[in-house]
Design a protein that fits this description.
The chain starts with 8 loop residues before the first strand and ends in a 7-residue tail after the last strand. Helices cover 34% and strands 20% of the residues. The longest helix has 19 residues. Helix 6 packs parallel to helix 7 and helix 7 runs parallel beside helix 8. The protein is α/β, with parallel strands linked by helices. It folds into 2 domains: 125 residues, Rossmann fold (3-Layer(aba) Sandwich), CATH 3.40.50.20; 138 residues, Cytidine Deaminase, domain 2.
C-alpha cells in the first residue's frame, strides 16, 4: 500500500465514547491525516467518518495495532477513549505480541499497561503524545463553573475528598471518591465513576460530594480524567450536591450542556488546582 506523504499523519488508538471522534475531527481540521486503530465492541463505528483510514482490532491485539499504525505511516499517535475495564476479565484475546507484553507485567494496573504499550510503540518508532494537544478547549479551567457556589462545609469535604482521592490514585485504584461530612462513602475501582457516584449516593441519601482528580504522577498521555452530562445525571440521581475536579488535568465533555444541567439540578461544579488545597 502506498502512503500519502502530503500531510502529517496522526494515529488514534481509540477506545469508547465520543473523545476519539472529537480528537479525530480536530486533527483533520488542523490539516492532519488521521488513522485510527479501533477496538471491536468498544469504539463508536462513527469514527470511520472522522478518519482517513481505520483498522479494527480486538482488545489485546498489540501486534495488529502496531502493524496497522506502521502500514499507514504513523509516527505520532494518541490514546483517546476508555476501555471497559471489566472486559479485561475473560474477554481479552491477545495476539503473540500482546501475550508477550502481559507476561512481563507484574501488576495489571491501568498506567502500567498503558506505559508498557507506549514503550512498545516507541521501540517501533511511534511516539505517543497527549491527546489533549488537539482539543485544548476541553480541558477544565480553574474556578467555579456553575451558578451555585459550594458552601463552607462542601468546600471542606472537597479538600478532604481530594486528599483521599490522591492517596488512592497513588495506589492506581481509581480517580474518584464520594464523601459527606468528612466521611468516605465510596471509592472508584473497576466499576467506573458513575456507579461509584450512585453507590456513594445511596449511603449519603443526599448532599454527597464527588471528587475526581488525576493520579499523582499520572501520565496524561493516557487516562485523562473526564466528566460530562452523564456524570451530572448520576449525581442528580444520587442527590449529590457538588463535584470537584482538577483544573488543567480534567476533560469536560459537552461543557455548556453539562453546566446547564448542573444549574438546573442545583449542583456545584468546582475546578481546583493543587495549590488550592491546604497542606
Amino acid at each position: 500500500m502506498s502512503v500519502s506523504t502530503q500531510k502529517p499523519t496522526l494515529g488514534i488508538i481509540a477506545g469508547s465514547g465520543k473523545f476519539p471522534l472529537l480528537v479525530a475531527r480536530a486533527a483533520r481540521n488542523a490539516g492532519l491525516r488521521v488513522v485510527a486503530i479501533a477496538h471491536e465492541g468498544e469504539t463508536d463505528p462513527a469514527l470511520e467518518y472522522e478518519t482517513d483510514s481505520i483498522v479494527w482490532i480486538r482488545l489485546g491485539q498489540l501486534g495488529r495495532l502496531i502493524r496497522g499504525l506502521k502500514t499507514h505511516g504513523v509516527r505520532t499517535a494518541v490514546m483517546a477513549g476508555a476501555i471497559e475495564k471489566r472486559r479485561m476479565f475473560g474477554n481479552i484475546l491477545p495476539d503473540l505480541k500482546g501475550l508477550g507484553l502481559m507476561s512481563r507485567l507484574a501488576i495489571f494496573h491501568d498506567d502500567d499497561i498503558l506505559r508498557a504499550v507506549a514503550r512498545e510503540l516507541d521501540r517501533e518508532g511511534i511516539e505517543v503524545v497527549s491527546s489533549t494537544t488537539h482539543v485544548p478547549e476541553l480541558v477544565a479551567p480553574p474556578g467555579i463553573l456553575t451558578m451555585k457556589r459550594p458552601s463552607k462545609a462542601e468546600k471542606e469535604d472537597m479538600v478532604f475528598g481530594w486528599r483521599i482521592a490522591k492517596e488512592l490514585g497513588g495506589l492506581d485504584i481509581g480517580q474518584c471518591v464520594v464523601v459527606r461530612q468528612k466521611t468516605v462513602l465510596a471509592v472508584e475501582a473497576i466499576e467506573g465513576t458513575d456507579r461509584t457516584i450512585l453507590r456513594g449516593g445511596r449511603l449519603a441519601r443526599e448532599k454527597a460530594i464527588v471528587v475526581k482528580v488525576s493520579k499523582p504522577n499520572q501520565d496524561l498521555r493516557f487516562d485523562v480524567p473526564s466528566i460530562g452530562v452523564g456524570t451530572i445525571r448520576s449525581m442528580a440521581k444520587a442527590k449529590a450536591s457538588a463535584i470537584a475536579v482538577e483544573a488543567g488535568k480534567t476533560l469536560l465533555f459537552d461543557r455548556d450542556e453539562m453546566i446547564s444541567l448542573a444549574d438546573k439540578e442545583g449542583i456545584s461544579i468546582v475546578s481546583l488546582q493543587g495549590e488550592d488545597i491546604p497542606s
